[in-house]
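Step 1: inspect the first sequence and its C-alpha cells.
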Amino acid sequence: MSELYARLDYLFNTYYNGTATPAERDELFEIINSSATDAELASLIHHAWDKLDDHGPLFDRSKSEDMLMQILRTNPEQSVAAPVKNNNLPWRRLGVAASFLLLVGFGAYIYSNQKKQVIAKKNIAKIYPKNDALPGGNKAILTLANGKTITLDSAQNGLLAQQGTTKINKTRNGQLVYETGTNVDAPVINTVSTPRGGQYQLVLPDGSKVCLNSASSLSFPTRFTGKTREVTITGEAYFEVAKNPQMPFRVKSDNTTVEVLGTHFNIMAYNDEAEMKTTLLEGSVKISNGTANGILKPGQQAVLNKAGRLKVLNDADVDDEIAWKDGIFQFRDAGIDAIMRQAARWYDVEVAYEGKIPQREFTGRISRNVKASELMSMLGYAGVKFKIEDKRITIQQ
C-alpha cells in the first residue's frame, strides 16, 4: 500500500510540474479510474492521510488547487484557469481524486460525480443526520385536456392515451412522446408537471425536445397550428427546438416571451428566485416582456428581475446553467441560500436557518444522485453546519 501511495504521490507531482510523460499521465488516471474496488482506493487515501498526520501536508493550498485544475482541464496545453470541463476524463472516480487532494492541502473546491465519496477526517466533524433525504428522479404527472391525470413514473411503457388522432406514448427510456395524426382534429392543451424531487423529458408534437427540472410544468397543444408554436412554462426547462422557420417557437412564462426559430436554450423562471434567466447555447432567441427586449447570441444570458429590468450578460457560465439536466449540481461563487433553494426542490425538503444566513460563496460540482447529507457534507468542508430531520434541513450557526 505504501508503494502505491508513493507512486500516486509521484504521479501527482510530475503531472502538476508538467514533467509527466504520456505514459505517466495515463497511469495516473488509470489508478483513479481502475482500482480493483472503491474500497481499495479509499484505503489508499486513508493511508495517505495517516501519513500526513505525522508529516503535514505535501502541498500548500494554492498548489493543491492548481493541481486539481490541471487534472480536470481539457488538455495539457490549456491554461490552469480554463473552465473545468473534460468529457474524456473518468468522472466516476473524480470524487475520490478530489478527496485525495483535500487530504494533501486542497481547500474550497470539491468536484464529484460519484455517489460514494471519501470524507476527509481531519478538522471535519462527521455529521450523522437522524434522517436523510433521497435524491429526486423521473417523476411527473400528465394532465389531459379532459382533466384526466396519468402518473408517468408508474405508468407502463407504450400507448398511454389518444386524443383525436394524436397518440401519447411512453418510451422504454422514460420519455413522453407525442405522435400527431391527421390535421382534422382541433388541438387541445396538455400539461406535464414535475413535483419537487422530480424531473422528466418529453418530445412535443413538432419534434422539439424538452427536459423539465423539479417543481416545473409545461403546457402545450397536442398539435401546433397557425403561425406560431406556443408553450407555457413554470419553473425550469431546457429546450432543443425543432427547426421550422415558417412557424417560430415561443415560450411564455408570466408576462415574458422567448421567441426562437430553432435553437438550444435553458429557461429558469421559479417564483422563489429573484430573477428569470434565459441562457442560450445555440441559435438565437428574442426576449421580451412588454417594456424591454433583447436578442441573445450563443453563450449569452438574459436576466430579468421582478421589477421588469432586463440585462444581457456576455460569456455566461453555460455549463453551470444546464448542469442540472446532466444530473449535476454545479456552483460557481454561489451563496448558501441559492444552493439551498436548489436542494429544497430536488430533495423535496424544507430549509430553515438558525440565525443569519451564512455569507459564504461556494464553487463546486457534485452528482444530483447523492443523498442530501452528501451534498451538505460538501458545504461542511467550508464550515457550514447543518442537521437533517423529518424532511427538513436546518443550517446552523
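Step 2: inspect the second sequence and its C-alpha cells, then contrast the two.
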Amino acid sequence: MSTATLPGEGSVSVRLWLDNGPDGMAIRRAEVAARRPRAVAALVGRKAEEAARLAPLLFSLCGSAQGLAVSRACETALGLDAGAHDAARSLLTDAEALDSHGWQAVVEWPARLGAPPRPAALRELRSAVSAILPSLYPAKDGMRPGGGVLRPDSAALRNALDRMAGWLEAAVFAGPPPRDADELAGWAARGGTDAALLAARLLSPTLSGWGACGAPLLGERSPGWFAAALAGDPGFAAAPRRNGAPALTGPLERQAENPLVVSVTECFGDGLARLFAARLADLAELPRRMETAIAALRPADPVAAAPANSAPGEGCGVAETARGRLAHWLRLDGDGRLADARMVAPTDWNFAADGPLARGLAGAAVRDRDDAEERVRLLVAMLDPCVACGIDVHE
C-alpha cells in the first residue's frame, strides 16, 4: 500500500512487513531508505563567496543554516576569524528553527490528528522571522564568508522576538509551556491547541513508549570531528556513524537534560512521548536563547582578508537546524575555488538504513496495517525528515 507521492528532489521510503505472532501483530521487518540528492556537488568550482550565496538556494529547507555552515567552512579554509558575528548568525538560525518548528505545529501535527492543516496561521510568525535579517545586516549580507556589515537594531529585534514569542504562546502552548510530565498531562487534557491535542494522543498507554529507537545521541559538535569524518570517507554522509554505530540528532539530542524531557522519560521511557516532549522543550527554549543573543550583539564589520601567510586549504562548518546538526566540509584549490564539497544533514543520521527510525520500527507492535501506517507517520513526524516520506505496508 503506497501512501505518498515521492518528489523528484528526494525522499525517504519506509517499507514494512507485518507478521502475526504469539503476542499479536508486529512489524517483523522495516526497511528505511533516504534518497537525498547531493546538491552540494553544485558548489564545486565556485568561489567561496558564491558558494555561500548559492547554498541557501540549493536546499529548500534550512537555508540560513546551510549558508552559515558553508560560510564557516570557507572561513576556516581561508583563515578568516568571523567570531564577532557568532551571536548574530545564531540569532538567524534560531529564528529559522522556530519557523520550521512552527510549520510542524500548525501543518504536520494537525494532519496527524486527522484535522486540516492551518498554514495561514504561520503568517504572523513568518513576518516576524523575516524582520530579523535586515535588523541585523541592513545589506542582508550576514552569511558571506567573513561576515557582513553588522549594525543591530535592538528595538526592531526585540519587537520581532516579542511577536515570535507571542505567536508561540498563542498558537502552540495557549499559555506557558509545560515544565514536567504532570504539567504536560494537564496541558494535554485541556486541549487548547493542536499541539496539546497531539500530546494527549502521544501520552496514551498504547503510544507513549512506542517507537523506542535505542540509538545513542550524536553528541558531536566539533567541526574538527565532522571534518575528519567527511574528508576521510566520501561515503560517510550516505551512512554516517559515530563510534561505529548510528546516532540520533535533533531536539532530543539538544534537550535530553531538559527538566520536561527528563520527567517524561522517567514516566514513559523512550518513544513517541519523549520525542514530542523534546520538540516542545526545543520550541520553548528558542525565544530565551534569542533574547540572550540579542543582548550580546555588537556592531561589527566584515573580515575582509586572511592573514598574509595563509593559503587556501580545507574547512568544515557546523550549524544547528530544527531537525538536528548540519555539517559542510570543503577543500579550496589554489584559485580559491571549491575543489571538493561534502555534507551530512540530520536526515542522513535519523533516516539511515539502520538509524533511529529503522530501530524504532523493528519489532514494534501494531494492531493492523492502517494502525501501522499511522504509527509510522507519527514517528516520522517526530524525527522530521527534510524530504517527503512514502510508506509501503506488506502483510
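Step 3: confirm your contrast with the notes below.
The beta strands are 11-21, 24-35, 314-321, 324-332, 338-344, 388-394. Residues 332 and 339 are 5 Å apart (CA to CA).
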